[in-house]
Amino acid sequence: MCLFPGASLTVVADRPASVSAVQLASRSGGHVLALTWREPATGPRDLQVVGTIAAVRQVQAVSPLEHRVELDGLSRARAELLVGTDLLVAEAAPLDEGEEGDEWGPAVEALARYLHGHAELRSFLESQRRSTEAMAWVNLACQHLPITTSARQKLLEADARERCLRISRGLDALLRKEHAS
Fold first, then answer.
1. What's the rounded Cα separation, in Å, for the pair 67 and 15?
2. Chain Cα centroid distance, residue 24
3. What does the alpha-carbon distance between residue 34 and residue 49 come to, in Å, rounded to a whole number?
4. What does the pLDDT read at residue 55?
5. Nearest to 67 by CA among 9, 8, 19
6. pLDDT of 44 higher than 70
7. Contact at 8 Å (CB) between 72 and 30?
């Protein structure tokens, strides 16, 4: 799963290194760098380079080996340096989203058209919404629309302008496909 800025994600940490990383983050500022696994992942360093700096909102032990972790995405970042072998500590550089521009409007309009026909998704996104900013809506859509993890990763790697263009095209294509069937 990819985590986008302005979106939330609940994950189950079930690897000892993941549990240790969450516990370390909780004790030292409460932030993690959420990175998606590369496909196919063969080792602990097979991670994408672009991810999201996230606040650890809640950690709940499900069992001694599993913890339910709620993350709130704050900003996109690039992993500049990973230190460690199993438990990884990252040096991350925030990525600029760019200025709000004309491209953001069509993405929000396409999202509104899509949500108009998908009341359950609209209700779910409303419950997940933490910001009234237009880009937060686009990021929530990127987080929860029925697309592959690799497509989500490509959206995360794109700046706000490009992400808006891609999501507006994608939503309109999904609507056309749904209306045709």
1. 9
2. 21
3. 10
4. 94
5. 19
6. no
7. no
Amino acid found at 143: Q
User: In whole numbers, what is the pLDDT of the chain averaged over residues?
Assistant: 85
Name the token pair of 38: 């590369």
- Please, are residues 51 and 77 in contact by the beta-carbon 8 Å criterion? yes
Per DSSP, the three-state class of 76 is: strand
> What CA–CA distance (Å, rounded) separates 30 from 13?
16
Q: What is the pLDDT of residues 59-115, one digit of tens each?
A: 999 998 899 999 999 999 999 988 887 788 888 999 988 766 666 777 778 888 888
Q: To which residue do tokens 């516990």 refer?
A: 23
Residue 129: is its pLDDT beyond 90?
A: no
Amino acid sitting at position 69: V
Q: Which residues contact 22 (CB under 8 A, 6 or more apart)?
A: 13, 32, 56, 59, 67, 69
Measured CA to CA, the distance from residue 79 to residue 30 in angstroms comes to 17
pLDDT surpassing 90 at residue 140? no
Instruction: Residue 129: name the closest of 118, 141, 117, 120 by CA.
Output: 141
